[in-house]
From TrEMBL:
The keyword Metal-binding does not apply. It comes from Linum tenue. This is Uncharacterized protein. Residues 59-71 have a biased composition (Low complexity). It is a multi-pass membrane protein.
Length: 195
């Protein structure tokens, strides 16, 4: 190491290198400004001995970072637990009542308008002439089809996407409930079919 250092100093201090350095656009830093290391310092650094005491010093291994030094990554938010209890699913603010009523109202509104257009009967006549059995059968099928996924823990929000979202279904059901009530009230006041 000392031999290499003195050789480099000799090369860079020669006049030919200095003249070449002046003709180019860059210059080498003067090696003379770097402090010279003694031969013992080089050996001490290579063997790991302290120059003054002569004791061997092993380089300290880098300590692994502690948990306080590692930045904490927040865990993903937990998925909300869906209750599958009968009382929770069918509670007033639960997921089933308004959704089932909205689905039944959508089917009822479309069916009432279709029968009224085809036969000219109002809602009350449709109900009195056999519409009750169709209403009960449709109610049972739609209620079971709506409750089975809810009791398995599947939410409507998890299956919605694009245009068919759970909010769109909820609003369509609300409008259908209002429409069915408005249709029945209009036909009652009018005394006959709406169309």
């Amino acid at each position: 190491m000392a031999l290499t250092s003195s050789t480099l100093q000799t090369i860079f201090s020669s006049p030919s290198v200095a003249s070449r350095a002046r003709t180019t656009s860059y210059s080498f830093p003067r090696i003379a400004s770097v402090p010279r290391l003694s031969r013992n310092a080089v050996l001490c650094m290579a063997t790991g001995q302290d120059e003054k005491t002569g004791q061997t010093n092993e380089p300290a291994a880098a300590a692994p970072p502690t948990t306080s030094q590692i930045p904490a990554i927040p865990p993903p938010p937990p998925k909300p637990k869906v209750s599958t209890k009968f009382g929770d699913v069918l509670a007033f603010s639960g997921p089933a009542p308004e959704r089932i009523n909205g689905r039944l109202a959508m089917v009822g509104f479309v069916a009432a308008l279709a029968v009224e257009l085809s036969k000219g009967q109002d809602v009350f006549t449709q109900i009195s002439e056999g519409g009750t059995t169709w209403f009960v059968a449709t109610s049972v099928v739609f209620t079971l089809a709506s409750l089975i996924p809810l009791f398995k823990g599947i939410t409507v929000e998890s299956k919605s996407g694009g245009l068919m979202t759970s909010d769109a279904e909820m609003w369509n059901g609300r409008f259908a409930m209002l429409g069915l009530v408005a249709l029945a009230f209009t036909e009652y006041v009018k005394g006959g079919p709406f169309v």
